[in-house]
Amino acid sequence: MSLLRAFLRRPMADRVLVVHAMVLHLAVAALVRVMSPRRVMAWLTARDVLPFQRPVREVQALRDESARVVWAVRTATHLMPAGKTCLTEALTARCLLRQRGADAALRIGVALATDAGARLAAHAWLEHAGRIIMGGETADRYEPLPLARRHR
């Protein structure tokens, strides 16, 4: 109940952002189950998922907005964890950032899992201007895959 009280004490803009993050995360989690991450990213990029768009121009404003978006996505997936993975969280946050006039690079890394033999493990995180903004807690354990080049 204290989490709900804390949520209700937040400004209306933060509560709206969390609700948007919840709805978007559910959609992303469903799409990732039936499509490749690249196709999900392309689908999200091609559509205005949220009904508003605010340009973020200043560096400090971008940092504040990215921190707010990361908080909203983490809060949303904590309140409704269905389909929660590092990939779905990163895709959701990236989409919300793009809607706000910012962008972040989705990075995926791989590593050999130390448990149960030589299994491959993967992790997704977001970077902006060379700084990890989401998913960095364990990113150093993974070797990032090269960023894909766009072919025309």
Features of this protein?
single chain; about 150 residues; alpha+beta; four-stranded antiparallel sheet; 5 helices; 4 strands
Structure notes:
The protein is of the alpha+beta class. The chain has a domain at 2-103. 50% of the residues lie in helices and 16% in strands. The chain has helices at residues 2-9, 12-34, 37-46, 59-79, 86-99; strands spanning 105-113, 119-128, 131-134, 143-144. Strands 3-2-1-4 form a four-stranded antiparallel sheet. A hairpin with a 2-residue loop joins strand 2 (119-128) and strand 3. Helix 2 (12-34) packs across helix 4 (59-79), helix 3 (37-46) runs parallel beside helix 5 (86-99) and helix 4 (59-79) crosses helix 5. The radius of gyration is 16 Å and the shape is globular. The model has no long low-confidence stretch (mean pLDDT 82).
